[in-house]
Amino acid sequence: MRAAAFMEPGGPEVLRLMELDAPQAGPGQVRVRVRAAGVQPVDCAVRAGAFPSGSAPGEPTIPGNELAGQIDQVGEGVTGFSVGDHVLGYRPLQAYAAHAVVPADQIVAKPADMPWAVAGGFSAAAQTAHIALQELAVGAGDTLLVHAAAGAVGSMAVQLAAHRGATVIGTARETNHAYLRQLGAVPVTYGHGLADRVRHAAPGGVDAALDGAGGDALQVSLDLAPAPDRVLTLVEHARAGELGVRTTPNLRSAARLAVLVELHTAGALEVHIRRTYPLAQAAEAHRAVESRHGPGKVVLTVD
Asked: Taking the model in full, what pTM does it have?
């Protein structure tokens, strides 16, 4: 099978198209003929060597933790899925490939009207945002501050919080303000004086903050939130403990994903695809994600 993989960590250029043996579905697993795979910042971190790849020495590492495609093998003991079913789901790595093996309890049925690119880039950002709001206990009447609100996770968080009846203040570049308004957020520009601009946008104060930017944005969140445990950072994991802020625990599940897919089907959760890249251009896709420019999701397509 074709896969976008690397032998040694480094910059985006280490990702290249390889011909590798296709995996086989084991007990409790299905094999998916991948049609699309989302590109996440954590994929870039794995490629750069910031996280263990799990690969044996001399073996390639295939990044990618979310995917969508068609089941072409069903392992022993799997019920509820059959060869030919269209699904979306998640796994820690291995999604940038023509075939990926996924535990059957980490996939859900793909709605017929959900485009492949949307399905492939749906699971990680949607679940991360949903878990973050759960950890922050965001509900009706709250005011939530979201940094990097136009990004993949931020845009999901904006919509999910608004759906819960919260007021959302979203920080972003001015070029993304119209997009944030469409999602239901009050946009505020990054940069010097941010805290004062947020106070002006939310005169009643901020009840919780979701930090997708780090640095000054995290400090602003701490300054404005009622307590450190009402702040959750997606990026400053090394500082979270000392600051007393939250991070997202690994609570992804098929049940959670199914709820989010239903919200998408109902029109309450939109996925903006910034750009798709063919598998052979995985390096360019990583450069696009690492630039942190532009709203929405970057997705790899697999023919």
From this structure: 0.95
